[in-house]
Amino acid sequence: MFRLPYDVVLMDVQMPLMDGLEASHRIRQEYENPTDHPEKASQRRLRIITMTANAMQGDREECIAAGMDDYISKPIRVEQLVEALSKYKPSISEAKKILTSPQSNLSPTSYPGNKNSSTENSILESKVIEGLREVEALDEVIDIHLDTSPELLENINTAIHQTEPLILKDAAHSLKSISGTIGAMNLYKICQELEVMARLAYESQNSTPAKAIEIFSEVKVEYEKVITALKIEQPKSD
Prior knowledge:
Layout: E1 8-12, H1 20-32, E2 47-52, H2 59-65, E3 70-73, H3 78-85, H4 90-99, H5 126-134, H6 138-161, H7 165-181, H8 185-203, H9 211-236
Parallel strand pairs: 1-2, 2-3
Helix pairs in contact: 3-4, 6-7, 6-9, 7-8, 8-9
């Protein structure tokens, strides 16, 4: 991290091995102690923006206490992300002006989540796709989804058949997160249902309910639709 300068880190809260709160705390400690990394003494302190699906009261305070600078909730909306980034990088402020202008597809009256956005039956939210294209992030987000989602899908399948609710919860959460980022809101909602079911089973020390198999069937159907739609979008972004 100190070999190359970064302006901002987008930090997920729920991660395996080390969660975002602990990771942010350690990053802050490294910047406060330049002995181990003298090269960072001349670098401007990077900003950490946390991303979490658990938008509960008190979460923001906990994130700030851990050393994070800002907080946005999932599913991430482009306007929300630009708003957060514009505080730390001047060039993003220009992008914000474009995205929120009356001519933009992501003006405050039409960004995803508003009643005027595309219907829930669409595979990908068109406003999310266009917003990512506007800020030149679409290629990277599609690549991340195509690269990481097959393993997550397999992890969900394995966790269900081995009745491992904790593994199921984490895998469903991760697939939900990357699906929300790309605007695949139907897949996001199905994964969220699976995640909640797995979390309740884990917290009550029960095995994964049999209904998880039925929900996973829905996940697979919607997943294939999303992958097809993303591959169609790839040539458009070249």
